[in-house]
Amino acid sequence: xxxxxxxxxxxxxxxxxxxxxxxxxxxxxxxxxxxxxxxxxxxxxxxxxxxxxxxxxxxxxxxxxxxxxxxxxxxxxxxxxxxxxxxxxxxxxxxxxxxxxxxxxxxxxxxxxxxxxxxxxxxxxxxxxxxxxxxxxxxxxxxxxxxxxxxxxxxxxxxxxxxxxxxxxxxxxxxxxxxxxxx
Length: 183
Ligand SMILES: [Zn+2]
Ligand SMILES: [Zn+2]
Fold this sequence. Notes:
The protein is mainly alpha-helical. It contains 8 helices and 2 strands; from the N terminus they run H-H-H-H-H-E-E-H-H-H. The model is unreliable at 68-81 (pLDDT under 50).
């Protein structure tokens, strides 16, 4: 067998007929490497008179390793988004690598990050942590819960962790207390 079952299947899919496959085998072409010896579509067409040029090109592209553009030997640089990548909350534009909390979005000119209020010292600012007291910001929707936990006497560092660990039921109970304290 000049070609494996898989190779035969692929070559048929590229458009070669069984007769053409037999002719290739008769000409001494064996396996995918045999096509590499042939080298290019024009030579393949010479080996197989009457071969459709588009089929010849498809076969040679496969034999050469599909998807490799000619002359592209350079290693590709892969751009991986790090966890620090920040997108503008207004226009969703990706912020530059040297972005610092509080910078304005170069795309729309607004503050790229939300301004959050600190549950601990009540100052506000961008970023993940309060610039005044160092507390980790909690989501705006859970600010009242965090303030309640502060009143309960939980340490500053524990409150954001505690909120993340609470289930929906436990949060409901806390919200009940928030509403009561407002009344
Ligand atoms: Zn923006
Ligand atoms: Zn603070």
